[in-house]
Amino acid sequence: MNDSTSWMMTAGGIAALLALLAWIGDRRRMRRRDMDRVGFMPWTPIFFWSLLAAVLLLGLGGRALLGG
Fold it and tell me: What is the 3-state secondary structure (H, E, C) of the chain?
């Protein structure tokens, strides 16, 4: 495993963890009891972009790891 592969896999893992955190935050926001208490975090775009980054980085890292 070379340096760029490990960098992509690490960044992809961090992006996947961020996507999981954003998914949990969005789910909590949608199921809140008091509808007047709105949050300020845009959880849906954070989830979308971090999941996209995770898929791309882990896919490219896995491809390089397997020798493609």
Answer: CCHHHHHHHHHHHHHHHHHHHHHHHHHHHHCCCCCCCCCCCCHHHHHHHHHHHHHHHHHHHHHHHCCC
pLDDT in tens, 5-39: 899 999 999 999 999 999 999 999 888 888 877 78
Q: What's the predicted TM-score (pTM) here?
A: 0.85
Give the C-alpha separation, 29 to 6, whole Å: 35
d(CA 20, CA 51): 8
For the chain, the domain total comes to 1
| pLDDT tens per residue, range 43-60 | 999 999 999 999 999 999
Sequence length of the chain is 68
